[in-house]
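Friendly challenge for the regulars: who can give me the structure tokens for this chain first? No prize, just bragging rights.
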Amino acid sequence: QVQLVESGGGLVQPGGSLRLSCVASGNIFSTYAMGWYRQVSGNQRELVASMTGAGLTNYADSAKGRFTISRDNAKNTVYLQMNSLKPEDTAVYLCNWGIRVGGFEYSYWGQGTPVTVSS
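First reply, four minutes later:
Bragging rights claimed.
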């Protein structure tokens, strides 16, 4: 089991920045990937950024050049630094954490943190 707690969302003006945090606890020794997704009410979740256990990163086209995913192993935390925010970035942002145990992969989700970009 992995427990995730996200924070850092809020209201920000267009062009502003936010840093989201996701603190993980539990069986994270077998982490193979972490990621940030976002969801607008009624729509599918979409990947924003991901990082493998080895540190390789991947970004949605909409996030490239503006968002940065990073990890602090000592704090069991993954971050999403979001700069130059746009109104279309408004969504609930969810942390995802994948572990591999006994040859099986398990995926866990946080409760989400809302981000609103508006003037």
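The radius of gyration is 14 Å. The chain is about 0% helix and 60% strand. Your move, everyone else.
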